Amino acid sequence: MIQRRSGNRIYIIGAGITGVTLAGEIRKKAVFGKVVAFLDDDAEKIGSRIHSIPVLGPIEEVVELLKTTPADEAIIAIPGATRERLKRIYRLLVGAGFVRIRFVPRISQILDGEAHLIQARQINPEDLLSRDPVQVNLKRSLAYLRGKRVLVTGAGGSIGGELCRQLLSGGAERLYLFGHGENSIYEIERELRLLQEEGVGERATIVPILGELQDRDFMHYILERTHAEVVFHTAAHKHVPLLEANPVEAVKNNVFGTKNILDAASAAGVERLVLVSTDKAVDPNSVYGASKLIAEELVLRQQAAGRVFLVVRFGNVLGSRGSILPLFRTQILKGGPLTVTDPQTKRFFMTIPEAASLVLQAGGLGRARGLYLLDMGEAVSIKEMAEQLVRLYGYEPESEIPFSYTGLRPGEKLEERLWSDGDTALPTEYPKILKLDRHYALNGQLEGVLQTLAPICYFSPENPDVYRNRTVLRKTLKKIVPTLRIPEDEPPH
Q1: What is the phi-psi region of residue 340: left when phi exceeds 0, alpha when psi lies from -120 to 50, beta otherwise?
Q2: Predicted pLDDT at 110
Q3: Phi-psi category of 127—alpha, beta or left, where left has phi over 0 and alpha has psi -120 to 50?
Q4: N or C end of the chain: which has fewer CB within 10 A?
Q5: Which whole-number Å values give the CA distances from 488 to 471, 478, 492, in the listed order?
């Protein structure tokens, strides 16, 4: 959120096109403060002036001098910087005592060739933890959406919201923001309209829609009414331990909610639907994973001619709602301890913007009934990531910020995988997107299992005894998901 800072002294790190553009915008809107100088490492620029603003450098030497009289704010305007370079600059600025440090989007998120001040956001240490994101040519990737009506479910969530931000520049005619959370839909609509006001993206009409995936009649009504041609289905209940405690709701929302939107999309003539899935769907031992595996299969069995319904599967995203990093940040700021489930735990991680860019790219690349994987690189040790985060905040792990090992929670694994034994990941024309050749599809019993699950999730006078029965639900799921864990002491209700 932009605040009034008319007395703000701002240093822009990077005297390239992006930095100069931001300086011009700040000059026009003096309410944000005044650019004191550019900092750059380019010897040809150092000592010059750009629009009367001096270019100082090298960055490391100038920042050292600023320790005695630190400025209020720094904006890192180097969208092509590697993660290591960003980390080095961030540490220098923190050491110099800057009150506020912002940075502009990666190159892959600047679609019109220039960044806008509205896109600069506060940099957090967790932004510096992942590998360097792949650079995606979104201009090319979004061509299939030009002139289309696009609906995003879960638009107020981490991935859904970022898809919407990037879709602003896709040339869509209308962008429907679908979700059940009033506040989250309000926030993303307000943010997108503000981005448009500041010149980001194209003039897509933004339409917020409050509704429930679980409401079958409404899903048919809204897809017929909106004439949406492309759907990105990101909405899901996804917190593993919480869903282990509420397994019926997990299935009701993730399985039957997905079935509702698929049936509605087929009836309304939706041309393309992309389901966002998870590595938890691979050999799942949790109800969440099982529900997403079934949701994948529901999408992959769609056979309507001329329709492209597909799945994009990937691992964790840094900084998403409910992810471990915001929790670690809170624990660090209160002095610890950091709660790590197990020192051997590993997870795949990707930034939210990178994941959203690749989902959009896969959505255009994908063929009907295809399951696509995002290349997540190597799995990362949660313990090592926690240690890096502690150091980025200026502390030493264990000695200054203690760790507490709590053990795996219900439904969690030590390591996740992106595909099962017997599956084969095949390359596509895009280096970070793979196509999965699967070796099985839920043992061919999906229809019968759905019929058994329905009266557990929705009350039926013909079979009232199974309504909300967790034991029957898990045993039913296990027929097609043999890896599913069944607790020994769980009551049926």
Answers
A1: beta
A2: 47
A3: alpha
A4: N
A5: 10, 14, 11
> Could you give the C-alpha distances from 93 to 74, 80, 116, 119, 385, in angstroms and in order?
8, 19, 22, 20, 22
Q: Per-residue DSSP letters for 470-489? A: HHHHHHHHHTT-TT----SS
Give per-residue pLDDT as tens, 205-214: 999 999 999 9
Q: What is the DSSP letter of 76?
A: E
Rg (CA), the chain: 24
Q: What's phi and psi for 258, nearest 5 deg? A: -65, -40
Contact between 424 and 371 under an 8 Å Cβ cutoff? The reply is no
Q: List the alpha helices (DSSP H) in 104-181.
A: 138-141, 158-167
C-alpha–C-alpha distance, residues 119 and 102, integer Å: 10
Tokens linked to 408? 């795996």
C-alpha 382/C-alpha 388 separation (Å) is: 10
Q: Which of 307, 328, 240, 296 is nearest to 419 (CA)?
A: 296
Measured distance CA(223)–CA(80) in Å, rounded: 40
Q: What is the dotted CATH code of the domain comprising 138-437?
A: 3.40.50.720
- How many residues comprise the chain? 493
Catalytic residue among 148, 238, 252, 280: 280
For 253-309, how does the pLDDT look when each residue is reduced to its tens digit (9 = 90+)? 999 999 999 999 999 999 999 999 999 999 999 999 999 999 999 999 987 788 999
Backbone angles phi, psi at 422, to 5 degrees: 95, -20
What pTM was estimated for this model as a whole?
Answer: 0.89
Structure tokens at 262: 């698929």
- The yes or no reply on domain 9-123 and CATH 3.40.50.80 is no
419: Cβ contacts below 8 Å, ≥ 6 apart: 282, 373, 425, 436, 438
Token pair 């009266």 in the structure block, residue? 455
Cβ atoms of 255 and 289 within 8 Å: the answer is no
What the block records as the tokens of 365 is 């690349």
Q: What is the 3-state secondary structure (H, E, C) of 362-405?
A: HHHHCCCCCEEEECCCCCEEHHHHHHHHHHHCCCCECCCECEEE
Task: Identify whether the C-beta of residue 281 lies closer than 8 Å to the C-beta of residue 296.
Answer: yes
The conformation of residue 145, written as its DSSP 8-state character, comes to: G
Q: For residue 10, what is the DSSP state?
A: E
Q: Distance between alpha carbon 435 and the CA centroid of its chain, in Å?
A: 20
- Residue 363 CB neighbour total at 10 angstroms: 25
Q: Is 139 a catalytic residue?
A: no
Q: In 3D, which of 406, 405, 400 has the Cα closest to residue 332?
A: 400
List the structure tokens of 144. 């299939």
- Rounded distance, CA 408 to CA 107, Å? 38
